[in-house]
Amino acid sequence: MTDNNPADFPATFTPTMFADLAMNHAAANGVHKFYLARVDPSFSDGGKNNLSPCVQIVMPEAGFLNLVAFFNTSIAQMLSDGRIKQEDVDATRDAFK
After folding, report:
1. Are 51 and 85 in contact, with CB atoms under 8 Å apart?
2. Is the CB of residue 33 less than 8 Å from the CB of residue 26?
3. pTM, whole model, 2 decimals?
4. Which residue range is the domain that position 69 belongs to?
5. Which domain of life is it from (predicted)?
């Protein structure tokens, strides 16, 4: 047990959202918006999937740039640790060109 005041930290009911991918990105007037999405399988047809938006993220430009830098650092660490391969990172980035 710690002596930390619970009011100083996020509530334990902070929601968790699973997403397979980011499906779009729009920026205007210093605000960035993007949707995270899931790939949901059909209940009735085993071969069909549906791309379902599950949450919209809205951030100021500085926050968005911080997010990108944070994830770029995470990718570099995963490469360094051998958890992912450079060829997979390159292929993913190439898909968005």
Report:
1. no
2. yes
3. 0.77
4. 18-94
5. Bacteria
